[in-house]
Amino acid sequence: MESKVLKVMGMSCDHCVQTITQAVEGMPGVSRVQVNLEKKAVTVDFEASQTDLKTISAKIDEAGFEVVAG
Ligand SMILES: [Cu+2]
């Protein structure tokens, strides 16, 4: 199990948090998503054999946000 923190721009309210949480939580291999709006941080726990940070970042971008570091 890997746990990584992504820096995500564009989150401004609880709705954004909800959108990202739902988008990433539904991905295969992802077991937990925690969004910290204040720190603009998205912590993702995932199984490295099933997905990777690049795929997860792409999903967040697709949802309308920008991953600036991970
Ligand atoms: Cu919002």
Short description:
With 70 residues, the chain is of the alpha+beta class. The chain contains two helices and four strands.
Task: Please give the structural blueprint.
Blueprint: E1 2-9, H1 14-25, E2 30-36, E3 41-46, H2 53-62, E4 66-69
The chain binds copper (II) ion (CU).
The site of copper (II) ion (CU) has 4 residues, from helix 1.
| Biggest beta sheet summary | 4 strands, antiparallel
Could you say which overall geometry the principal axes of the C-alpha atoms support?
A: globular
Give the tally of structural domains: 1
Q: Name the CATH class.
A: Alpha Beta
What value does the average pLDDT take? 96
Structural Rg:
11 Å
Structural class: alpha+beta
**How many extended strands?**
4
* Strand fraction: 35-45%
Termini separation comes to 17 Å
CATH architecture assignment: 2-Layer Sandwich
Low-confidence parts: none
| Number of distinct helices | 2
> What name does the CATH topology carry?
Alpha-Beta Plaits
The helix/strand order is EHEEHE
- Associated small molecules: copper (II) ion
Structure, described:
With 70 residues, the chain is an alpha+beta fold. The chain has one domain: 2-Layer Sandwich (Alpha-Beta Plaits). The chain is 31% helix and 36% strand. The chain is built from 2 helices and 4 strands. The chain has helices spanning 14-25, 53-62; strands spanning 2-9, 30-36, 41-46, 66-69. A 4-stranded antiparallel sheet has the order 2-3-1-4, with helices on one face. A hairpin with a 4-residue loop joins strand 2 and strand 3. It is globular. 20% of the residues are buried. The mean pLDDT is 96. Copper (II) ion is lined by residues 12-13, 15-16.
